[in-house]
UniProtKB/TrEMBL annotation:
A family per Pfam: Peptidase_M23
Protein name: Peptidase family M23
GO molecular function: metalloendopeptidase activity
Species of the source: Stutzerimonas xanthomarina DSM 18231
Signal peptide interval: none
Gene3D superfamilies (UniProt xref): Glucose Permease (Domain IIA)
Domain M23ase beta-sheet core: residue ranges: 164-257
InterPro entries: Cell_wall_metabolism_enzyme, Dup_hybrid_motif, M23ase_b-sheet_dom
């Protein structure tokens, strides 16, 4: 897995389905900034335009995405070459990626299509797709360690609350430290295995801008902080473990903000680079 192309794929096989999406006055959609909407979604819309079809992508995430549109079994279709379209859609925009036209008027336009997308995201400063904001210190001591599942990882980083999380493979007992100063909101220390909480033992910290950082799958009995405690960058929180829904010893680190009654994962960056391993959590 390449860090700047952490892939999350949602493949939709449809047969010429039409979903209404308001068009701009010119009949095209390009780099239009979107209002706030349900976070963390990328959707393909198919609109009727004259006798053809227009395909638009709406990106409601906070990072750019590369979309891949494949058309097969095309009959009387022109405008998409051999049927493979790749486009980069900026964060929080809607954009037209393809327009299908009839080769011969009066005959039906037929095709099948599949749609997938990849987050263009890196938590490392200076790389394409990097995000701004606070630069988090590495939340562990020792190493070096590597990312085993990144943002949009296909095993478990697909939900709005975990989309931009990262997993760092490391031995159990590795010291886990605060990546940013704040106040401990919650800490769990008594879980032994996978159940009952999929997060296992964890620490959640509130920061001065209202965001949270969370450190999951910690070793039982290792957590050193309590709710209400102030921590500084580098303060010892506990030790890495393998509790909760974990495929092996690692630290799950995520930055979130409140969204209604739930928490929404948001992009972040580290203050220094972290290397990447193959995605060992892949379902493939």
């Amino acid at each position: 897995m390449h860090l700047t192309r952490l892939i999350i794929s949602f493949v939709l096989l449809t047969f010429g389905s039409i979903v209404a999406l308001p068009l701009l006055a010119s009949g095209t959609i390009s780099n239009a900034t979107l209002p706030a909407a349900k976070p963390g979604t990328v959707k393909l819309f198919v609109n009727r335009v004259g006798s053809g079809k227009a395909m638009d992508v709406r990106n409601d995430t906070d990072v750019p995405v590369e979309v891949v549109l494949r058309l097969t079994h095309m009959v009387n279709v022109t405008g998409v070459g051999k049927g493979l379209v790749r486009k980069t859609v900026p964060a929080r925009t809607r954009m037209r990626v393809a327009t299908l036209r009839k080769r011969q008027p009066g005959y039906p336009l037929m095709y099948q299509h599949s749609f997938s997308y990849s987050l263009i995201y890196s938590p490392e400063p200076g790389k394409k797709g990097s995000v701004g904001g606070y630069a988090y210190a590495l939340p562990w001591k020792g190493g070096p360690f590597s990312i085993s599942q990144g943002a949009g990882g296909d095993y478990s980083h697909t939900s709005p609350k975990g989309r931009y999380a990262i997993d760092i493979a490391m031995p159990e007992g590795t010291p886990i430290v605060a990546a940013r100063a704040g106040t401990v909101l919650k800490a769990r220390d008594g879980q032994h295995g996978r159940m009952p909480n999929p997060a296992g033992n964890y620490v959640r910290i509130l920061h001065d801008d209202g965001t949270h950082s969370a450190y999951l799958h910690l070793r039982r009995g290792s957590v050193k902080v309590k709710a209400g405690q102030q921590v500084k960058v580098g303060s010892l929180l506990g030790q890495s473990g393998n509790t909760g829904r974990s495929t092996g010893p690692h630290l799950h680190f995520v930055v979130q903000k409140a969204y209604g009654d739930s928490m929404l994962s948001i992009p972040f960056r580290f203050s220094q680079p972290v290397s990447t391993l193959p995605n060992f959590a892949s379902n493939n």
